[in-house]
Amino acid sequence: MKARTVATRAALLPAFLCLQVSGLYAAEGGAGFYLLGSKGPMAAALPPPGVYFQNDVYIYTGDLGGNRGLPLGGKIVADVKATAIIEVPTAIWVTPWEIGSGSLAFSLSLPFGQKNVDAGLEIANPVIGNPVSFSRSEDRFSFGDPVAAAMVGWHSGNWHWQTGVMVNIPIGDYKDGSLSNLSFNRWAADVNAAVTWLDPSTGLDLSVAAGFTFNGENPATDYKTGTEFHLEWAISQNFSKEFSAGLVGYYYDQVTGDSGEGATLGDFKGRVAAIGATAAYNFEVGKLPISARVKYFHEFDAKNRAEGDAVFLTLAIPLAVSQAGH
Asked: C-alpha angle 153/109/295, rounded to 5°?
C-alpha cells in the first residue's frame, strides 16, 4: 500500500504543479478585471471638464478552503490563501463635448503591484487509503493590463447618472503557469451604469452602480471566464465640506459558467457579497485641492470564490480644470 501511495503521489504531482489557481475558483485567477468596490459615494457624478488624476491602492487578503472546497474524483479540499497590494493610477479627461446633453469623459488605468498566493490540495481517495497533499507558493511583482474607459454623465437637480464601458487590453506582464498574475491575458469589456442622489441641504448621498463583464478567452490556457454581474452601493453623509462617512457594499454573481478546453473542473459559477464602511477628507496643499478616501469591505457568502477583506486608499487631484467648469 505504501509503494502504491508513493506511486500515486508521483503521478499526481506534475499535474498539480501545472494547475493554476484559476482551476480552484470560478473565473480564471479568481477575479475579474473589474475591481469590486471601486465605486462608492458620488459614483455617478462626473466632475467639471478638465484633467484629473486618481490613485487607488487596493489591499486584499482572502482564502478559499474548508466548506468552499471543490470536488474532483474523490474529495478535494482546496486551501488557497492570497494577499495582493495593487496600485491603480488613473488619468481622467472630462471633455468639453457632450453626447445627448451629457458630459463625455475618458480614462486610462495602469495597474501594478505585488501578489502572494499559497495553494494547497488534499485528495481523499479510498483506493489510496491516505490523503494525498501538495502545496505551492508564489510571491510576484508584476504589471497588469491597461484598462481604458469611456463614460457619459448627466445631472439634474439632486440627481446624477452615468453610463460607460471599460475595456481590458491584454498587454500586461502575463506569465504562463504563474499563480500570481495581475494580467488577465484576455480581452474583456465591462458595460456599467450608476445613479447618485445627493441632497446639498442635508449632505446625504445615496449611490448605486451595476454592470456586466463580458470575457474573451485566454489563449495561453484556453480558459473562457463566464459573464459576471456586479452591484455596488453606498450610503454616505457629508458632515462638512471636508469630512464625510458612511456604509458601502457590493454583490458579485457569475451569471454564466466558465468554459473552454482549459476549464477542466467544469462549468463553475462564483458568487460573493461584501459590506463595509467608508470615510473621506478633503483638504488643500497650497492651493491644490485633494480628496482622500478610505473604504473597507468584509466579504461573506462566497461560493467557488475567495472570501476575505479589501481596503481601498484613494487620492484624487485635479490637474487642469477648465474655467467653464467653475
From this structure: 75
Report the CATH number at residue 285: 2.40.160.40
Domain that holds residue 194: 2-325
User: Which DSSP symbol is given to 2?
Assistant: H
Nearby residues of 60 by Cβ (< 8 Å), 6 or more positions away: 82, 83, 84, 86, 308, 309, 310, 311
* pLDDT tens digits, one per residue of 260-300: 887 666 677 889 999 999 999 999 998 899 999 999 999 99
User: What is the enclosing helix (H) or strand (E) of 8?
Assistant: helix 2-17
Give the global pTM.
Answer: 0.86
For the chain, the domain total comes to 1
Residue type, 31: A
Per-residue pLDDT tens digits for 33-62: 899 999 999 999 999 999 999 999 999 999
d(CA 306, CA 322): 44
Contacts of 301 (CB under 8 A, 6+ apart): 271, 272, 273
